[in-house]
Amino acid sequence: MINTVLIVLSLSITSEAQLASHAHLQFLSHDQLAGRKTATKHANLAASYISKQFKRYGLAPVSNQFIVPFNYKSGFFSEGNAHNVMAVTDSIANKPTVVITAHFDHLGSSGKAVYNGADDNASGVAALLTLAKLISENPNRQLNYLFLATDAEEAGLFGAREFINNPPIPLSNVLININLDMLGVSKRKRLLALYNTPSKPLVEALKDTNWHTNSKLKFTKGNGFYNSSVKNQRRRIIDAGDHRAFYKKNIPVLYFGVGEHDNYHTVGDTYENIHHGFFDANLHNIAKVISELDANAHLLNSALPN
After folding, report:
1. How do 108-110 and 67-74 pair as beta strands?
2. pLDDT tens digit string along 235-267?
3. What span, in angstroms and rounded, lies between the C-alpha atoms of 264 and 273?
4. Pairing state of beta strands 174-180 and 97-103?
5. Is 241 among the domain residues?
6. Cα(96)–Cα(301) distance, rounded to whole angstroms?
7. pLDDT for 216-228, tens place per residue?
8. What is the spatial distance between Cα 20 and Cα 137, in angstroms, rounded to a whole number?
9. The pLDDT of residue 61 is above 90
10. Whose CA is closest to 283, among 194, 228, 211?
11. Bridge-partner residues for 253, per DSSP?
């Protein structure tokens, strides 16, 4: 059971925070960013925007810079170039780190058709930036936080793989990965939260929480992200996002998303088609999860990888 008396990191999603989150979402999904395809100037613009927000919020780069370039194999004979954007809160000694991820790349454009990727995944990045500001400004947090905006997710989850293969902090210090990927569109007003066995103690403690009424939060080990006709839903959703790299290392994960919908990977995935009240409610609920996690890290301490 969550010990609410001990909750000290209270992340309040104010109207100001909501406005900021929508400003981030609108900018990242604007036509001028042309779908943020990896290795284009438009993806570079998105990375630059994210890094500027991290700096504005008083966060620190993990190494010497917020934008960290990396290469990945593209086909059999070539390499792709990409950039992760990373920032951390001021370090609290002897405390584990929560890694919050969201990929900023999308499909780009084709002729006059722009795949804006408002839900996939400007929504996740907007939430990440809003949470980064709230967490960094809160003097009562009990944990360390690393914010990771990944690139080349659409090409094969390469940004998350780069983080795991060349970790800027020891993986043994990672308490949990919270992955934010598609938070803004659902006719049923349902947000799914994928968890794995190591994160189960936290999930069990959260199940009786009062969530925002504009979003039905459902914890699942895989079902619900795809149409029921899709076979092996659990395996598909485990492999479908940046959380996979952490999952494979047996690190606790919570992946928040809505699953596929009519606008997924189409030109209809625009800011105008975001379900704005639903997105706001999801931001409230995810902030509540993080607030309670911060005060109850002991539920996951036994799951820290060796």
Report:
1. unpaired
2. 899 999 999 999 999 999 999 999 999 999 999
3. 11
4. parallel
5. yes
6. 9
7. 999 999 999 988 8
8. 15
9. yes
10. 211
11. 177
Cα–Cα distance measured from residue 125 to residue 119, given in angstroms and rounded to the nearest whole number: 10
Q: Is 59 helix (H, G, I), strand (E, B) or coil?
A: coil
Side-by-side strand order, sheet with 174-180: 67-74, 78-88, 144-150, 97-103, 174-180, 253-257, 190-195, 216-220
177 has which bridge partners? 99, 253
State the residue range of the domain holding 108.
4-301
Q: What is the CATH number of the domain that holds 17?
A: 3.40.630.10
Classify residue 165: in a domain, yes or no: yes
145 burial via Cβ count (<10 Å: 0-12, 13-18, 19+): buried
Residue 306 lies in a domain: no
From the list 136, 50, 141, the residue with the least C-alpha distance to 101 is 50
For the full predicted model, state whether its pTM sits above 0.85: yes
How is the chain split among helix, strand and coil, in percent rounded to 5? Answer: 40, 20, 40
In a domain, 59, yes or no: yes
Handedness of CA 212, 134, 194, 48 (dihedral sign): positive
Taking the C-alpha atoms of residue 89 and residue 190, their distance in angstroms, rounded to an integer, is: 31
Count up the domains in the chain and report the number: 1
Core vs surface per residue 227-237: b (16+ CB within 10 A) or e: eeeeeebeeeb
